[in-house]
Amino acid sequence: MQHQVERFRARSRWLHWAIVLSAFALFVTGIFLYVPEWGVVAQDGWTRLFHRIAAVVFVAAPVLYFLTTPGRALSFIKTIFTWGKGDLEWAKAAPEYYFGGDESAMPPQPEMNTGQKLWSLVAFVSAVGFVITGFIMWFFKGDVSPGVFQAAIVIHDICLIVGGSMTLVHLYLGSVHPRMTESLQSMFSGEVSVEYAKSHYGKWYAEITGEEEAVEEAPSSEGEE
Predict the structure, then answer these.
(1) What is 102-208's CATH number?
(2) How far apart are CA 87 and CA 3, in angstroms?
(3) Arithmetic mean of pLDDT, 59-72
(4) Helix or strand run (H / E) with residue 182
(5) CA distance 21 to 53
(6) Residues 106, 108, 109, 114: is their CA dihedral positive or negative?
(7) Maximum Cα interatomic distance, the chain, rounded to a whole number of Å
(8) For the chain, what are the domain ranges?
(9) Range with the lowest mean pLDDT among 44-48, 122-126, 127-131?
(10) Res. 65 pLDDT band, cuts 50 70 90
């Protein structure tokens, strides 16, 4: 009997950690600009160099992933921008579930549940905002008008606030919340237990195992003694 199921392939895990590490480096080196006593250090010091190196990794990792697995990359983008009735049902049941309510009340979820879709959408939009505004600030300082440059800085800051806030929620749910204990582990091993897959991604588990079809084809017990 299979006790583990593969949830994340090696390429997906490498992408995840490349983004995590580069984003952390970007945050640490970028935060110097927000601390008055440290701002001078960031102007022409090593922090600016490391910030730009991390930015290159932050952009190159997903681009490389897209070039090597375009189908999965496009499927991911389509998923985070596709919302329906099932997401609304999840949102209604989620508050009670996350605060210890009945787990069986949660509707079965696909490979990416609604909460993960929301996090991924915010992360994706924030990342695009970071890249565009960062590109302007890095390569076009002095070439664009002061208004455009200041707008780029403001949008960059907004992306940090919104994306950073959602990241804290993501970190808590993925690493600390008692019902999500296998999430962080799966980003290293790529696997989750069968029980975890069934309870958190019921639709997805049924699809990959064929249980959905088995249920549909099972003979009815009505009228049997």
Answers:
(1) 1.20.950.20
(2) 29
(3) 95
(4) helix 181-189
(5) 12
(6) negative
(7) 84
(8) 7-70, 102-208
(9) 44-48
(10) very high
Q: Are 4 and 184 in contact (CB under 8 A)?
A: no
The model carries a pTM of 0.84
In 31-142, which ranges are continuous DSSP H helix?
Answer: 39-44, 46-68, 70-80, 85-98, 114-139
Asked if 162 contacts 126 with a C-beta cutoff of 8 angstroms, the reply is yes
- Per the CB < 8 A criterion, the answer to whether 104 and 141 are in contact is no
- What percent of the chain lies above the pLDDT cut of 90? 53
Average pLDDT over residues 85-103: 86
100 secondary structure, DSSP code: T
Query: Helix, strand, or coil here: 46?
Result: helix
**Residues contacting residue 11 through CB under 8 Å, at least 6 positions apart:** 65, 68, 69
- The structure tokens 């895990």 sit at 13
For residue 185, the number of C-alpha atoms closer than 13 Å in the C-beta half-sphere is: 12
The mean per-residue pLDDT over the stretch 25-49 comes to 73
Residue 150 has pLDDT above 70, yes or no: yes
